[in-house]
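Because discrete structure vocabularies remain unfamiliar, we first show an illustrative case, written as a sequence plus integers encoding its fold.
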Amino acid sequence: MSSRIVVLVGLKVSWLRWVCHGCRVHLDVLHVLPSNQRRGAETFAFDLHHTLADRGVRSAIWCLEPGRGDRSLPVPALADRRFSLAGVRALRREAVRAGLVVAHGSSTLLACSLGLVGLGVPFVYLNIGDPRYWAKSTTRRLRARWLIGRAAAVTAISPRARDVLVGYYRLDAAHVHVIPNGRAADRFVPAGAALRTASRRALGVSTAGDVVAVVGALTAEKRVDVAIKAIARSPDVVLVVAGDGPERPTLEALAEHAAPGRVVFLGTTDGSSTVLAAADVLALSSDSEGVPGVLIEAGLAGLPVVATDVGWVRDVVRPGTTGLLVPPGRPDLFGTALREALDRRGNLGRAGRAHCLAEFEMGPVVDKWQRLIERTTSRRRNGSVA
């Protein structure tokens, strides 16, 4: 009797395994984003997913929570809130179909390092910012190191970011790979006079005079207030702000006081190409950054950049050659740099486009991602990845 039970149980287990395997639609890679808002990291992940899919890689993409507004990326959300039990369940359900998960950014690091426990599915963590900015205390650093240590591999967007990850978190250098940020060059081209005029009309901006653009989330660390105060020193310049976030009411009040009628808040846009086509210079005044995609977009569009010298901004902005760098939190110096960039826009813009075409074009960037995906999943098949 007992032998019959053992046989029946064995048959049932085998049958269940066969059914689960048969129902499973295999993926090569699953991308996990913090949200589907049109921000730099999310936009890159979206483009990476589609480029890989065009190359025949079986790729899927999800985000931890939906973004606000009606101009979000068409990426489904795992749950209504970023960290929830429903989200963990959904992540596990989707991840079990994949050979590899790519976690884009620190929020997804926490979700994937804990949510994938026991599945046997490796994940790659893409670090997008300065790892020192968000983990300044010893406790946070130790926690981040433990979470990062669960990844099968880590990618840094700059050689200097890799050095910080290895030194700050004491990671194995062989575990950390450098793959730069990237953008498709054919989507960002220098604007001629006709396109610039049409773009300004589309945005409701004056077709005469100089326009400086800010593109990004309106959050505290982005310090858009610095750009507004800098513009206040140049009464003939208009500032266009594309993006949204919790700082918007404060920034609108500041603009009305410091530069009335010369700061246009566009909110979230469908993309940055029209904004960049309307502008003469891109401004980025953050306190912390990685390698912002908008700097690459501006470079490809032939726009000079004035930015704060933080994070790995120097990878894109070569001081005096493709743009100008100033210390963070200095509206006076930022305003002076904006005037110089406007005066030198032609030469700076041409050099910026040449540099970004050589270093950040999407094709070679995806080549590196494809090799890392294949190498990591190959190690898993050979049993060397947990």
About this structure: Residues 2-23 form the longest helix (22 residues). The chain has two domains: 16-182+362-381, 185-359.
